[in-house]
Structures are given as C-alpha cells and as structure tokens.
Write a structure and sequence with these properties.
It is built from 8 helices and 10 strands. It is α/β, with parallel strands linked by helices and 251 residues long. The chain is globular.
C-alpha cells in the first residue's frame, strides 16, 4: 500500500509541564483540502508548527511521503511549506525581490510568469517595488501566499489564512487551493472562518490538544446533529459534544 502524503502517529507536544498536543494521529492524502478548526488554545498552531518541523515533537512521529520530516530535511522543505499567521520577511527586499529570492533558493525554472500571475491574482502587481514595511497586514499575508504558491509544495500548511484577507481575496485563495487539490497537492489549514458557500474535503476539530472529530462536512453534520455542514455550525456542535463528554471521561 502507498503511504499517505502526511501521517501523524501519536504526536504529543509539551510547553514545560503544559500538554499542548495529546497523542494526535491522522492522515492526509494527496489531493485533499483539510480544515483544522477549534477554539483558541485548542492546539492548532502548535500542531501545524510540529508538522512543519518548526517545533520538534515531544513524542510521536510525523511522516511526509513515508519519510520522517526530520530526515532528508532539504527535500522536506521543498515539499512542505508552512505560512504562519504573521509571516516574517526580509526588511530590505522588495515584494518582487522576495519572489526572486524564493525562486533562486528553490532553483525554480521559468518562474517569472507564474510569479507575475500570482501577484496579479492577489492584487500585488502595483506593489512589486514596495518593502514589507509599506504593506498592510493583508498585503503581507498575500505576499507570503505568493511565495509559497510559487514553490508549489506537495503539502501546504496555512495558519488562519482568511483572517487577514478581504472577502474577494479569500475567495481567490480558496479557488487557488482547490486548483492545487485538483493537481494532487494537499492543503491543511487552520481557520475559524472560511469563504461563504465553500466546503473542504474534511474537517479536523481540535479541543484541548486532541482531535475530537474528523470527517467530511456531511458526515460530521449527521454524527454531531449539527444544524448544517457549515464551519460555524459544526464547530459549535463539536464543542457542545466535547463538553457533554468531559464529565463522563473525568468520572
């Protein structure tokens, strides 16, 4: 059997004595768009950072294409990219120079046309000569998205991508992510919100460092008796279900 694109096995992570992730296990297949959701402090950002190798797991295993992310790190970095909620930039490089730098580091061929197309789609064409300090928060996040999409990794990780974006750009991003899915690439993103009338292949809901629900929007709607398969209704139903289960688990 072919290994899934991403596999987490019993992943735990602690900050000092605080258990932020508790034996999290799941797979993400190539060609899937998966949304990670949960309340503030549920562990979403920590989980994404562990998958990207930014935080080394306290326990467990993270495999990409059947290989530990801690092995062959150069190829891992080419095939797995995390865009954090507050992306870092080089203060003395312009928007255009950031894309050139990423292309050169990753030895991308014939990248300029793709870079210009990305800048146009995210409304940054007129800002190519601007430095990051001159950009709004939303524009900075768009630049980080352009850099990641230019590399086009097998697995793209996004931390709260829709928060900084205007509704038009949010839909543009969703369309781009859905197109990646159609080319066999995978996306795992954390979000409290999503563009209207769109649904991922799967939701992973987290609570207290655990994955407490995993499934398609329709399957989770039925299992949780939610009002609809929207993110808001499914998150509310997941939290209510987790709270009902908590006393029984403590007992």
């Amino acid at each position: 059997m072919t290994a899934p694109l991403l596999r987490l096995t019993d992943v735990s992570y602690t900050y000092g004595s605080y258990l932020a992730l508790n034996q999290v296990s799941f797979d993400v297949e190539a060609g899937q768009l998966v949304v990670l959701a949960g309340r503030n402090g549920a562990g979403k950002t920590t989980l994404l950072r562990c998958i990207a190798g930014w935080n080394q797991v306290t326990q467990g295993q993270v495999d990409l294409m059947g290989t530990s992310i801690y092995q062959a790190e150069r190829s891992m970095r080419r095939n797995l990219i995390l865009v954090p909620d507050t992306p870092p930039f080089y203060n003395d490089l312009t928007v255009g120079e950031h894309l050139q730098f990423i292309a050169q580091v990753n030895r991308l061929a014939n990248w300029r046309g793709t870079a210009q197309d990305l800048l146009k789609r995210f409304g940054l064409t007129a800002s190519q000569a601007a430095l990051p300090a001159a950009l709004s928060r939303g524009q900075r996040y768009k630049l980080a998205l352009c850099m990641a999409l230019l590399v086009d990794p097998q697995l793209l990780l996004l931390d709260e991508p829709f928060g900084p974006l205007d509704p038009f750009s949010a839909h543009q991003l969703w369309d781009d992510l859905w197109a990646r899915r159609g080319r066999g690439k995978a996306v795992l993103l954390s979000s409290h919100q999503s563009p209207l009338n769109v649904r991922p292949d799967r939701y992973l809901f987290m609570e207290g460092g655990d994955v407490v629900a995993d499934g398609t929007p329709d399957d989770l709607m039925d299992a949780l008796h939610a009002g609809s398969n929207s993110l808001d209704d499914l998150l509310r139903a997941t939290i209510e279900h987790a709270e009902r289960q908590a006393p029984a688990q403590e007992a």
